Amino acid sequence: MNPKIVLVEDEEILRENLKEILEINNFEVSDFSNGNQVLEYLKSNKTSLIISDLMMPEMDGHRLLQQIRSNEWTKDIPFILLSAKIEQDDRDKSFALGADQYLIKPIKTVDLIKSIKSILKD
């Protein structure tokens, strides 16, 4: 069974591209445009990993991460944040909130897949 990944990205073209990359690499992907949709989805579905954009309307990646980590049923799901923000403060906050990885956009496919495999191997 292939690992299941939840992908959260508000930019449709980028979301579709990332989904295609992940599926080509044998991951099952459920994709969403905002964090609220993910929280609803996780009430009745399991996932191996969450990959989320940081800057999104409605609920940003940090808020989604906080919600995931504060819920007994989802707190152990590995979480990768993707962001165009390169400031150290954003990285520090992400890791303090419980992110497993913080990757800077644009992300190389090889780096994304390597990060995912590394996290899922643990």
UniProtKB/TrEMBL annotation:
A biological process term (GO) from this entry: phosphorelay signal transduction system
SUPFAM superfamilies to which the protein is assigned, alphabetical: CheY-like (SSF52172)
One family name in Pfam for this protein: Response_reg
Domain of life: Bacteria
Coiled-coil regions, chain positions: none
Sequence positions bearing 4-aspartylphosphate: 53
Membrane-spanning intervals of the chain: none
InterPro entries reported in the protein's UniProt record: Bact_response_regulator, CheY-like_superfamily, Sig_transdc_resp-reg_receiver
Keyword field contains Cell inner membrane: no
Domain Response regulatory: 4-120
Gene3D superfamilies: 3.40.50.2300
Keyword Ligase: no
Keyword field: Phosphoprotein
Protein's name in the database: Twitching motility two-component system response regulator PilH
Protein species of origin: Mongoliibacter ruber
Organism lineage string: Bacteria, Pseudomonadati, Bacteroidota, Cytophagia, Cytophagales
